[in-house]
Amino acid sequence: MKNYFQAKYLLFFGALLIMIIGGFYFNLVKVDKVEAGCAITDPDTGRVTTGWPPPPYRINHGWCRNSCSFPGEILWCGCDPGYHRDPGIDIETGDLDLLCVLNTTAVSGTLSPDVSTCTILTGGSSCGQTLTWTTTNPPAGSTSVVTNSSGATLATGNNGSQSFSIPHTAVNTFIEFSLKNGATPLDKSLVDAVCKTGDTWNGTTCIGASLPDLTASTPPQNTAVIGMPQIFTSIITNNQR
Prior knowledge:
Blueprint: H1 2-31, E1 39-41, E2 48-50, E3 57-59, E4 62-66, E5 74-79, E6 83-85, E7 100-102, E8 108-112, E9 115-120, E10 126-136, E11 144-147, E12 153-156, E13 160-167, E14 175-181, E15 184-195, E16 200-201, E17 206-207, E18 215-216, E19 236-237
Parallel strand pairs: 9-15
Antiparallel strand pairs: 1-2, 3-4, 4-5, 6-7, 8-10, 10-13, 11-12, 11-14, 14-15, 16-17, 18-19
C-alpha cells in the first residue's frame, strides 16, 4: 500500500512537472518572437510582454519609429531642430525623405518714407525724392524690386536707397511706389510733387508770382550846377522786396 501511494504521488508530481515544463516551453515559443523594444499580447492568457520602445531610424532631416504590435506600421516620426513636418506627406504612403522641411519665415520688407512731398523749384516740372527699402528673409536667389504706379521697375536689390524724379502732381494726388519680392508685395510709398510756396503751375512748369509795375514821381529838384554835387529824391510806389 505504501509503495502504491508513493507511486501515485510520483505520477502526480511528474504530471505536474510535465505541465509546468510544457507550459513554460510553449510560452517561450510565444515570447521568443518578441523583439527588443516590442510589446505583444499573448492571445491565450492576455499577458502583455513589453520591452523598451523600438529604436528610431533616420530619414532625411528627421527620424521615425515603427510599431511593434503591428510590424511595418509607423508609430511616430519627428524632425530635426530647424525643420517641421509637411502635413501634406502621409507617413504611411508618402516619401518619408520629403516629410521634414526647413523652417522658413515669410519674406517682409519696408519702403520709406510712407508718405512724402517734394518741392519743385521755379521753372521746374519735377523734383527728387529719396526712397529707402529693406527686405527681410528674402528667399534664396530672389531680388526685390521697386516699381512705380504703372508697374515699371525703377530699382532692384533687396536693400537700397535711391532718389527718384517725381513729376508735378495735382493737389491731393500721389504717385505710388511699390516694393515687391517676386510676386509678393511688401510695402508701398506715396509721393507728391508741388510748386514752392508762391509759385503756380501753368500746366508745364512752376512759375513765380508776377511782380507789380513800379512807378516813380519826378523829383522836385531836377537841375544841377556843374561842379556842384546835387541829391535828387523821388517816391517809388509798389516796391516789392
